[in-house]
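Re: folding output
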Amino acid sequence: MTQMAKYPHEVGVKVGECMEAGDLEGVLSLFHPDCVICFPPEEPPKYGHEAVREIFSELIAAKPRIVNRVTGIQECGETALLQHDWRFEDAGGNLIAEGKSTEVVRRLDNGGWGFFIDCPLGPPALATNI
C-alpha cells in the first residue's frame, strides 16, 4: 500500500512500519524512483525500485521490529540529509542487526518524502586508487 512521509524525518519510521507489516509495496513507495542504495557496503551501489525490491524482499520476510532514531538532519528545499541510529529486532526483542546510516531524502511526486540515497551503514569508503 502506498505510504507518505510528510516530513523528512518520518521516512525511516514509515519504512520500518511497512517492514513490520510485511508491506513491500509500502516500502517501495517511500523510495525515489531514481534512488541509489549502498548495501551491502562491499558491493557496488544498486539503483532504482528494482534494487529496493531485491534488497527489502529478503529483509521483510522476517517482519523485523525496527527502531530508528534520527541523530542529525539538514533540510534545504526539496532535499534533506539525515543520519540515523537503527536496529532490527526479532519478535522476541533479540538484536538482528544495527548500524548508523546516512541518507538523502527528496520530495516525491505525491508531495511526500522518500529515500534518494540510502547508506544503511554509512557512505561507502573511497576506493584506494582515488
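--- second protein (sequence, then structure) ---
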Amino acid sequence: MRTIVWFCYFWVQFVCLLPTLRRAEKARAAGREDEVQALLSREVPRWAGGLLRLAGVTVEVTGRENIPSGACVFVGNHRSYYDIPLMLTQLDGPHAMVAKQQIDRIPLVRRWMRLLDCVFLDRDNPRRAMQALNAATELVKNGKSVVIFPEGTRGKGGELELGEFKAGAFRMALKAGAPVVPVAIHGSRDIMENNGGWMKPTHVTIRILPPVPTAGLSREEQKQLPGRTASLLLEALRPMQEIPTKPKRS
C-alpha cells in the first residue's frame, strides 16, 4: 500500500504543481531569475521531501558545514533512485544535477529538471556526453553547484563495492577550478531496490565530507583525483555500515 500511495503522490503532486511550473518557466523566459530560484528553493525540497516521508525515510546528515560558499561539484556514491530526492533535500538547497538521458523523457519531470539547470547525459553517445559535461562545467564556472554520481549507474553489489569513478565528473571540477565535495550515502538501497521494488521505512545516513581542492593540482594529482575521491568515500562508508537502516520506533 505504501508503494501505491507513493506513486499516486508522485504524479498528483506534479499535476498540482503545474501552475507553479508554468509561473517559473515564464519568469525564466522574462529573465526574472531570482523569482525562479525562490520558487525552486521552496517547491523542490517540499515535493522531494514528501517522497521521502511517504516512503517512511528518516535521514541523519552530518557535515553540512563542509559545504563551501562558492560553486562546487558534489560527488556521491549511487545505489538507489532515492539518491536523487536525498540530494535535492539534504544539501544546502536543490542544485543542478548531471542525470541520465532517460529522465529527460519523463513528462513534467524533465521540465522541473531543466528549471534546475540539470544536464542530461547520453552514455551511449560519447560526443553528446562530452557536450553535456561541457555544459555542466559552464554552470560551475558561472557559480552554480552541480551534483553528479561518477559511477554513472546505480551500484547493485555491497555498499563498499563502488563502481569505477568516471573521469568526466572530475574534469568538470578541474576545468572550473571548483572543489569536489564527496557525499557518502548509507542505506538508500534498503528503501526500495533491496525489497523487490516495494518501499519500506528506512533510516538513511549521509556524511558530507570536507571539500577536495582542484585548483593548482599537478597533472599526476589530477589523474589521481577520481581514485582519491573514491577512497575518501570508502573511508567514510566503512564505519557507517554499523548504523542500522531500520528506523527506531518513537
